[in-house]
Amino acid sequence: MKAVFFDFDGTLTHRRANVWKSIWQMFDYDISEGSYYRQLFNDFLANRITHQQWCDLTCEAFKNKGMTIDVLNQIASKVELLAGAKETFETLKQNGFDLFVVSGNITDVIEKVLGENVKYFSAIRANDMFFDDENKLTFIKGTSYDFEGKAKFILEYKESTGCKVDDLYFVGNGANDKWAHLAGCHTICINPENADEDDKNKWHETLFEVDDLRQILPLLGIEK
């Protein structure tokens, strides 16, 4: 059994402002250094709040601005997959790989952007937004599989399948991806952004200019 675990924002998609940041900006919230947006992120990293508390406080900020599912759909419509994504997923499946998305993004957004490509994935692990009958945001359920949790998910897969760690790959790009190596899998950093990409303990391979996802295939032992 072989598997590839993908991050989403900036890994499977073109590098632009991530989805969370885009929502804050859409509501005209300040996202500069010293802002509430930054404060929540820093409080989480410093263990002053839990991941779910971070989600709860973010939810309150969005609800105060009248967040609806239409806003989420509008954000998702602007996110584009990298060229060659479908071909990459098809090739990996043909070569016996299980595919997963393990992301700090939002499940609904990931599914909308992947579109028909969802069929290639065994599971998507991300944050979930819930809306009421009037399509207004009610709750954000945080994922257990972001930051250090990415390694946790990979290890759970390894234990449940009995596969060898040498057959597991993680592909990411950002600061929340750099813990994946703790699972012992092969790690590939593409289009890095604050990912400690020069740390060879965290990343076995780094590709700096990926505009077509098929560029990663040789690093997975597959000739294009």
Overall outline:
globular
Task: Write down the overall mean pLDDT.
Answer: 95
Distance between the termini: 21 Å
Instruction: Name the poorly predicted regions.
Output: none
* Biggest sheet statistics: 7 strands, mixed
Tell me what you see in this structure.
This protein has 224 residues and is α/β, with parallel strands linked by helices. The chain contains seven helices and seven strands, in the order E-H-H-H-H-H-E-H-E-E-H-E-E-E. A seven-stranded mixed sheet has the order 4-3-2-1-5-6-7, with helices on both faces. The longest helix has 14 residues, at 148-161. It is globular. The mean pLDDT is 95.
Keywords for this structure?
224 residues, alpha/beta, seven-stranded mixed beta sheet
